[in-house]
Amino acid sequence: MKEPNSPDSPLADLCRQRGLKLTGQRRTIAFVLSDSDDHPDVEELYRRAVEVDPRISIATVYRTVRLFEENGILQRRDFGGGRARYEVADGDHGDHYHLIDADTGKVIEFENAELDALLDGIVRQMGYDLVTTRLSVVGRRKAKPRSRG
Amino acid sequence: MKEPNSPDSPLADLCRQRGLKLTGQRRTIAFVLSDSDDHPDVEELYRRAVEVDPRISIATVYRTVRLFEENGILQRRDFGGGRARYEVADGDHGDHYHLIDADTGKVIEFENAELDALLDGIVRQMGYDLVTTRLSVVGRRKAKPRSRG
DNA sequence: TCTGATAATGAGAAAGATTATCATTTGCAA
DNA sequence: TTGCAAATGATAATCTTTCTCATTATCAGA
Ligand SMILES: [Mn+2]
Ligand SMILES: [Mn+2]
Ligand SMILES: [Zn+2]
Ligand SMILES: [Zn+2]
């Protein structure tokens, strides 16, 4: 266990702000999420949550990520592989996209205002308002160009 | 049944070109795919295939779309909803993206060379070669601007 | 602080999509 | 035409996620 009854995590506070009942399990999951800067799936969140409070159930993790997503606290991501992955919907962090390393699976985040604007313009021109952009690119690390000789 | 023992469909020919054994089931599924211009899931492909040859099995449809995808004949798409959807990997048709109508679920294809180039440049600048772009946007039809009066 | 209504939880069943198994059939090269 | 490797059909198994329902916990109000 780490950081037991400390002041609530940012996400736990958000939880309360949204008028959601703040149970022990939700406090734990909120803490784990606030503490993560990657894109864990539910199994991984469960593992991390159990470290904090061993009597949490995976059913509750599923329920909680769904609840948090519905309340705009979490964002669900799909990087292929059949499982949903989650990250905090951070207003500061801003919208971002993901590059997945084809060989290692590593996820690299990036932002690009030109891309934002281009997508928005394309969709608008088609007569729609953009609601969601689902974008991830898979790439393979370029071989370092060798100095010839 | 429609179009029984006619000349093979373009996809069936492709199948043969790749050295894949051309079974009756594969011929049927290839025909159904060539005949489709939308993004059917496996269940839908199965329904369409059964119209042509009633003794086809859904297991074979699953196997065949996987085989065709592995051989670059089909492209798998994910528009959410938990099922894979497929379309012919058409060289002529070119790479394209998908706009999903948030209210109706309708899928609208679009191409955009600027988007192609921008994504390629972004990925390259991060030190990667672009392998796959997974992009779909969800949009909501704009209300027609009313002439005020 | 105590109580009760209500909502959340845990454990496991169920659902839904996809893949694996295995006995039988089929395509196709010789 | 034959033989064999590969494909098929039927169905079991797998995997992720949701549902069910009896039990427990939260929290507003007394
Ligand atoms: Mn994982
Ligand atoms: Mn369907
Ligand atoms: Zn991210
Ligand atoms: Zn398409």
TrEMBL record, chains A, B:
<dbReference type="InterPro" id="IPR036390">
    <property type="entry name" value="WH_DNA-bd_sf"/>
</dbReference>
<keyword id="KW-0238">DNA-binding</keyword>
<keyword id="KW-0963">Cytoplasm</keyword>
<dbReference type="GO" id="GO:0003700">
    <property type="term" value="F:DNA-binding transcription factor activity"/>
</dbReference>
<keyword id="KW-0408">Iron</keyword>
<dbReference type="InterPro" id="IPR043135">
    <property type="entry name" value="Fur_C"/>
</dbReference>
<dbReference type="GO" id="GO:1900376">
    <property type="term" value="P:regulation of secondary metabolite biosynthetic process"/>
</dbReference>
<comment type="subunit">
    <text>Homodimer.</text>
</comment>
<keyword id="KW-0678">Repressor</keyword>
<keyword id="KW-0804">Transcription</keyword>
<protein>
    <recommendedName>
        <fullName>Ferric uptake regulation protein</fullName>
    </recommendedName>
</protein>
<dbReference type="GO" id="GO:0005829">
    <property type="term" value="C:cytosol"/>
</dbReference>
<dbReference type="InterPro" id="IPR036388">
    <property type="entry name" value="WH-like_DNA-bd_sf"/>
</dbReference>
<feature type="binding site">
    <location>
        <position position="93"/>
    </location>
    <ligand>
        <name>Fe cation</name>
    </ligand>
</feature>
<dbReference type="InterPro" id="IPR002481">
    <property type="entry name" value="FUR"/>
</dbReference>
<keyword id="KW-0862">Zinc</keyword>
<dbReference type="Pfam" id="PF01475">
    <property type="entry name" value="FUR"/>
</dbReference>
<keyword id="KW-0479">Metal-binding</keyword>
<dbReference type="GO" id="GO:0045892">
    <property type="term" value="P:negative regulation of DNA-templated transcription"/>
</dbReference>
<dbReference type="GO" id="GO:0000976">
    <property type="term" value="F:transcription cis-regulatory region binding"/>
</dbReference>
<keyword id="KW-0805">Transcription regulation</keyword>
<dbReference type="GO" id="GO:0008270">
    <property type="term" value="F:zinc ion binding"/>
</dbReference>
<comment type="similarity">
    <text>Belongs to the Fur family.</text>
</comment>
